[in-house]
Write the C-alpha cells for this entry.
Amino acid sequence: MPDDDSRIILWGSPGGAQSVEITWIAQDAGRFGRDKRVPRAEATHARIREWGGSNEGERVVTVVEADRYISELKLHHAQQAVDGIETERKMATWVDSLCSRCPHCQEPRTYAGLQRLTSDAEVHVYQCAYCGSLELFRDGGPIEHPIPGNRGPDS
C-alpha cells in the first residue's frame, strides 16, 4: 500500500459518525479487476467508511464528491472547536459570577480550604465570617475551587 496521501481519517461528522476514513482509489485498476489504493492525485474515486452515525457503512463516490465531503467535515470540525471554545467561555463567565452566600445572614462565604471528612471524602469548605455556617462541595467536581466570588485573603 502507498505510504503517501492515499488515505485520510477524520474524527466525527455532522451525521454523528465517530470516525470517517476516506481512501483514494482507482476503480478496477488492481489485480483481478479490484480497486487499487492510490495517492489522491491518481484517484478516480474514493471509498468512504463511517463508523456510527446516520451514514454508517461504506460507499464509493467520485473524487469531486469526496473532496466536497472532506470540506464539509473540516467545516464541521472547525464549528465544533468554536462551539467548544464558546462553551468554555460561558462556563468560565458563569463560574466567575458564582458567590456562595450564607442563607442565614446573606453574607458572602469565604473559602476555608480543602478538608478530609472521612477516609475517602475530600470537600471544599466555605464559611460565613459572621455566623459561622459552612457549605461543602465535593472535591473533583466540575467547578474548580475556590470559586472566584469567594476567594479569601489567603486564596
About this structure: The chain has two domains: 7-96, 110-150.
